[in-house]
Amino acid sequence: MHHGPGLVVVTSLLAAGLVAAYSHGLGLAYPQLRSHLTRVAPESRARLLCFVAGLPWMLALETLLLTFLPSFITIPNLIEDHCLPHSHHPHLCLRHGLWAPSWQAWTLLAALGLAGGALCLRWLHRILAGQRQIRTLLRFGKTTENFHLLPSPRILAFSAGLLRPCTVMSSGALSSLEERDLKVVLIHEAAHAQRRDALRLVLGEALLMAVPDRLRRMLIEDLALACEESCDRAALPHAGGPERMAEILMRVQRLGMVSPKGLPGVTGSQLSLRVRALLEESYPPSRTWIWATPLLLLLATPVHHSAETLLHILIP
Amino acid sequence: MPTPLSPLTLGDLEMEVLEHLWHIGAGDVRTVHLALSEGRKHHPNTIQSTLDRLFRKGLLKRKKLCRAFVYTPQFNREELTARLVEETLHRIKGAAPLPMLAAFVDLAAAQDPSVLDELQQFLEDRRSARRSV
Prior knowledge:
The complex is a heterodimer.
Chain A: H1 7-37, H2 42-74, H3 103-139, E1 142-143, E2 148-150, E3 157-160, E4 166-170, H4 171-176, H5 179-195, H6 197-207, H7 213-239, H8 242-256, H9 271-280, H10 300-314
Parallel strand pairs in A: 2-4
Antiparallel strand pairs in A: 1-2, 3-4
Helix pairs in contact in A: 1-2, 1-3, 2-6, 2-7, 2-10, 5-7, 6-7, 7-8, 7-9, 8-9
Chain B: H1 12-24, H2 29-36, H3 44-56, E1 60-65, E2 68-73, H4 77-92, E3 101-103, H5 113-132
Antiparallel strand pairs in B: 1-2
């Protein structure tokens, strides 16, 4: 009998390896995918980007299921047991059982678990600290019917919070903006809360943890831009058209602008993209590809044998 | 020397203590404890550790008078609000943006007025093109 990893160890190692591999694959493929995504309407783009963020995990799960599928259908004798005829590599088989894990396999799993746990804890700490920071800021404001009023001369309007986001407006914004513009700003921020954009972005960040840093930022920025554009579009009927909406965006930016620190012609915000999206873009209707997913079952056998061969190479 | 923690966060009791000190100007553990224990019970040690925490966060100054520390706020309410606003603005974008903050426009990012002028021109061009059709 082989002295190899057991079910838990094999599944965990395979899952970790698959998530890491697919995440890096996504990192490589995303810059090419990006130009196609910009042609999609922001509401669908935000959903699509969330799907893309979850893709490494979904593909890893799907690959795992496909890996064990031949084993599942061997148990009720739907296909012939294939383990005994070939014995040159370990078998991913639930019927004959998996083997006792070696100490190397346990060590590798423990190292991966510790590294993954540390990453998750660091991320969780950042999110919780952010929530505490928001709660602290809100303590300095007054709650009105529709928003939190912050006593500050800066022109501020933002939505804050994760599960129950609220709109925060500064007294500076209230005194500087016209009532009609204020209404549009409030509707834009309320749309963030309604669409649960904060939760979307937090989940996106969590799912993209294994993607290389630069590409993760790119993906999150694209998701944030899609959310902003969606909320701009949600406020359009109240603004009175895209041109008026673009004007409000630019006016608020000019009012709240601090002294320029950037290079000439460079802006750190997404304002330019949002204004151009409002004025230029007309998006085609979105299509769905969900009908194609059952075709993945055809991959079960090749995926199963590839995983066994990979195991043989890794743990001879 | 107290080292201010960044970003600044405050709990319920810390906020209550600060509010009280802004109201009376200065106080020691006993006076703060007496004032805050009217509605509900706080142990003096809890008040002591809260004052100490606020001092370590750089929000209070303290001076020893007759074996007891007297605490005074380092910043007034407006100054502290301004600091929190700036900190929050820099968490909307920047090195480690918080996903649970979404600003109408990003005021923390470096801005170039010429970009806004360019956008304004683009808007005007579009309007005049629409009028001429």
